[in-house]
Amino acid sequence: MSDLTQEEIDALISGTKTKTTDDIMAEEERDVQALEAMDADIQEDITEYFSHDQVDALGEIGNICMGTAATTMYALLGRRVSITTPKVGLFKAENVLASFKWPFLAISVEYTEGMFGKNLLIIKDYDAAIITDLLMGGEGNIDRDKIVLNEIHLSAMSEVMNQMIGSSATAMADMMSNEVNIAPPEVQQAEPHQDVSSFLDGAPLVIKISFDMVIEGLLKSKLMQIMPVEMAQTMINKLMPAEPKEPEKPKNAPAGYAGSPNVPAAGESRQQSAGARSQAPAEPKRVQPVKPASYESFDEPFISSQAEISSVNYDLINDIPLQVTVELGKAKKNLSDVLNFGIGSIIVLDKLAGELVDVIVNGKRIAKGEVVVIDDNYGVRITEILR
């Protein structure tokens, strides 16, 4: 039987060359490079609104959220999915997709609790067709020139995005130490060069965070997140609260000066001050720069001190069942001897009568003891612990 697909058979008959998956992925990668080159010419100066640390934090927030979303997509599609390498830029709303030459889906996401505002996810029709085909049991083999997205595809894409953004909201809530909820995403088809301000309530300036999206063996493309500048500033303020500055103490200030909020005024009890601090809400987790992980060398054996061993919390594993066996002794016999066993046969063990027996736990000998009788049951009194 031939492994050729129907498209490849038709191509052989017509004498045309069929594009392989590698060819299509190479084209996608060239599209991505062209898009990045054109974006560099139409960006605005982001440093007028955000510091370098804030720009890095925006990218890292998106990276954490999209990493969670990629895990969710992998569970849905059954293919390895990676969404990485965020790139942050500031654009006018009418220019943000000026270099985008492909029909796309605009997924509008509105935050309704913990954070308020809209953002937009942009994904090409071709990418959406592959994702929905995989979701519906296909192999993701889509002709780039014959893409058709009907209501079923849009509904499937809406469900994928609902799962992805839901997991992203959970990651966001964890970073903010506060509950974050979203409304169901709205999926709409759009055309190249469309002004995205119509999706974002007329926002004139937007932040675009673009991610590399790779679906194993099928796709290398871009996923874009677009949000108004105001929402990006709100996100930064919630996740990177400004450090409060203590006011300077005036010259010749009297004792008990209450200018600093952390210093109780004269006559104020320490208990009142402590009570006020305990009622303050917990600060959200600050977004920290991500550094490459460092690993210990395993060339030398690791030796724990007795103090470290004794500090282990064994309560976590106390309810794990173990198989305890008591071994009276052993004997080695040939197959012919075993076949001749019958009722009344005697097997001589390698231990003398009254000798200590072995206590074995999960196949490991840990102790020795003597056989005792408790009521009508045999037991073992442990007399020696083996190290």
Helix-strand category: alpha+beta
CATH superfamily of the largest domain: CheC-like
Count of all domains: 2
- The string of secondary-structure elements, in order, is HHHEEEHHEEEEHHHEHEEE
| Number of helical elements | 9
Determine the N-to-C terminus distance.
63 Å
Helix content: 25-40%
Largest sheet: 7 strands, antiparallel
* Beta-strand proportion: 15-25%
Task: Compute the CA-based radius of gyration.
Answer: 34 Å
Question: How confident overall, as mean pLDDT?
Answer: 75
Q: How many β-strand stretches?
A: 11
CATH class value of the largest domain: Alpha Beta
**Do you know the CATH architecture of the largest domain?**
3-Layer(aba) Sandwich
Low-confidence stretches: 260-271
What is the fold-level CATH name, i.e. the topology of the largest domain?
A: Chemotaxis protein chec
How would the global form be characterised?
Answer: elongated
Structure description:
The protein has 387 residues and is of the alpha+beta class. The chain folds into 2 domains: 6-239, Chemotaxis protein chec (3-Layer(aba) Sandwich), CATH 3.40.1550.10; 319-385, SpoA-like (Surface presentation of antigens (SPOA), Roll), CATH 2.30.330. The protein is built from 9 helices and 11 strands. The chain has helices at 6-14, 21-42, 52-77, 125-135, 151-176, 229-239, 270-279, 306-310, 335-339; strands spanning 81-92, 104-113, 117-124, 181-182, 186-190, 205-215, 219-228, 324-327, 357-361, 364-374, 377-385. The strands form 2 sheets. Strands 1, 2, 3, 4, 5, 6 and 7 form a 7-stranded antiparallel sheet that branches. 22% of the residues are buried. Mean pLDDT is 75; it is low at 260-271.
